[in-house]
Write the structure tokens for this entry.
Amino acid sequence: MRHRHAGKLLGRSYEHRKALYRNLMIALIEHKKIKTTLAKARAVQPEVEALISIAREDTPHARRMALSKLASKEAMRKLFTFAPTTYGGRNGGYTRITKLGPRRGDGAEMALIELI
């Protein structure tokens, strides 16, 4: 039984899942929206929301925390340029997931996750 086991495993090991989340977060910050599977979009959404909440206040500590999650200085700089101005007065709800329908090859449910 999976009682009290939070989060989705996505059929990957811990390291692979962590790298997947990091890459999805970097791509989302750089491109403002990405097309991925619905399961991946739902899994990475809370991570991105927490990262943007950290980036709302531009302090050295917040930058270090964001860099530890992103591991990309360019993405971190970009996040800290738009997050305080865009999301300064908003408490959560920074992303939107839109369903796109099944993928042609394998029928996986696709989704568009974007920064609002």
